[in-house]
Amino acid sequence: MDQGDETQSAADGTPPARRTRALRWARNGAIAILVAIAAIWLVLFVTKGRFLKRPFERIVSGLVERPVRVRGDFQLYFAPFDIKLLAEGLTVANPAWTTRDHLFAAQRIDTRIAPLPLIVGRWRLRWLDLTDASLDLEWNEAHTANSWTFGAQGGGEPFELPVIGRARLVSTALRYRDPRLALLADLDFSSITSRDARIGEAVRFTGDGRIRGTPFTLTGALLSPNETVARGRNRLELNAVAANNRIRMTGTLPSLAEIEGVPLQVAAEGRNVAELLDILGIVVPQTRAYRLTSTLVKRDARFRFGDLKGRFGDSDIAGAFTVDNGAERVHVEADLATRVLDIVDVAPFIGYNPDVVAERGVTAAARATGAGPARLLPDANLRAEGLRAFDADVRYRVARLQSDNVPITDAAVTVALDDGLLSLSPLNFTMARGTVRSDVRFDWRRRPARVTYDFRLGSTPMARLLAGWGVADAGTSGTVSGRLRLEGDGDTLHDSLATSRGRIAFVIPQGTLTTRNVQLSELDLGTFVQKMFEERLKEPVNINCGLVAFTVRRGVAAADPILIDTRKNVITGRGGFSFVTERVDLAFRADAKKFSLFSGQSPVGIGGTFSDPALAAVSPDLLARAGAGLGLAVLAAPPAALLAFVDIGDAQSAACGPVLAGATASEQRTSEGKRREDVGADEDAEREDRPRKKFLGIF
């Protein structure tokens, strides 16, 4: 050793001999490692690593905590630097709770694995050749575990797709099952070939399945597969057909099977929204053809459809709703609004088919539900069983109802459904500048259902309310208010009203009323003739107070009372109508307060049915009096014929207090405080089991 080496050894404190031995050992160790690697490489290359088949199955099975088997040829070796893996008949078992044995199965898998990324726990496949592969993805019944999350109970880390450089996939299938949604889907992917980490324009697939018992077919594509294989984001396009509904879904997924929290654009169209929502277990009335768009976001068991826009029939719809499958029953929460609601599209909510209403009218629609001839109320069952399958909290607003005769605006309803108890409370709307506040309740927990109707009409101008029936705006200052409260039992609108009991009352305070044509509101033909002769047809009728009220028992409404006090007359009415048979049998007459020369004083009747009412302005009583006048003219002189039409004017004015309070007939009084004898509930009108009689000699 020269002086320099000795000086260096002395400086670092290492004896020269020991340093030399350390270098020799390091060199020999490196050579040994290289020789061992070469030997292993050579052994694996010569044997193709087939002897590692059982260790491979054992090690991988331990890692994923489920059996992994290779039933055919197996190769695992370096070729030359990448790891080659070939396995025929490779299967990865599913957890015991699934309906299929294998999560993954392939007739043949041949791949090259980059070794260096494995050191940091990442998989990079330089190329992959997969033949006749199938992947089965399932959730358990409680939705707490899935088959693709490895672990003893499916609660470990989910499987992630590796990065793939080149690939060729032939006859690949995927099956997805979700018991919570009652969903089963089978997809078949077209053959895929990729080079340099690029697959091409799209990976397309077709499939079919069932959701809540409804079969469906679908087609779709992964529109950015090159980003998917590079662990990027994937653009999905899906088209499905189910129960006459066409659904299109597009969006960008973070991975192949991940939709949690991802906004997806959904467009749907079909002939009936009820058929679409029935797929999700939600029962709604039938609609006409619809077209909707929305943004769907899934979070756990909640599916939120936001930015909803579209049309059903001739009406628009907007808002958002959420479907929650996490509880025992599906729960729906919605906030919806309509600018213009066509009255035909309201028909399904009371049991009519809207298409039949639009094409042939309400009577034909009622007949289509099973109602008898000339019936108007539908006999359609409102699907009580379905209403016990889900719960709901819905808020719905309508700016305007499109109708020729019903001026309704600013409608709003809150719908609550809890285990078959359906409440529409409050159900409010503006009708002819008057406010209707109502509550409707259907108790489907009992059969037949118990139904309660409670409608309260605030002070409403008659000119607007009755504009479609000939009432003129100019010269009409009268208003009307009222309440309808009925309770009945039935699973259809007709049955619930046909068994109803309660009261209907409309109050008319002081005001005037003018009609555009015939003044039947006065109901005094003599006054009408007199005004016609004097050319004062447009003179308003001066109303002091009025009450039109009915007591309802067993679906039959009897006048209790009908009493209108005007400046010249006291108008009373008898009779009633029936929700059971839908027949109307009402008679009105006016008694003059003052002497009237041309006063027929004969009743005016309203008869027929709800669907075809009839007005008898000239009654048999009037004809008989005209005949008496003719006889007197023959026996005496023509002026004597007028005596048959003379009214001495003895009508007693009504006390307006009980009238405006909506009191029953027994509580009505004259202006002098005496009990009225000319009004009263007709007992025969209240009983369907009694023989029908003609009120006041008409109908």
Could you provide a short overview of the structure?
The protein is of the alpha+beta class and 699 residues long. It contains 15 helices and 31 strands.
Please state the average pLDDT score.
77
Shape: rod-shaped
How many whole angstroms does the radius of gyration measure? Answer: 42 Å
What is the strand content? 35-45%
Number of strands: 31
Measured as a percent range, the helix fraction is 10-25%
Helix tally equals 15
Low-confidence stretches: 195-200, 226-232, 518-537, 597-601, 618-648, 683-699
**Span from first to last CA?**
142 Å
Q: Kindly name the structural category.
A: alpha+beta
**Main sheet attributes: strand count, strand direction, barrel closure:** 31 strands, mixed
Describe the structure in your own words:
With 699 residues, the chain is an alpha+beta fold. Among the domains are: 50-258, no CATH class; 500-699, no CATH class. The chain is built from 15 helices and 31 strands. It has a 31-stranded mixed sheet that branches. A hairpin with a 5-residue loop joins strand 28 (569-578) and strand 29 (584-592). The protein is rod-shaped and about 145 Å long.
Sum up the structure in keywords.
31-stranded mixed β-sheet; rod-shaped; 41% strand
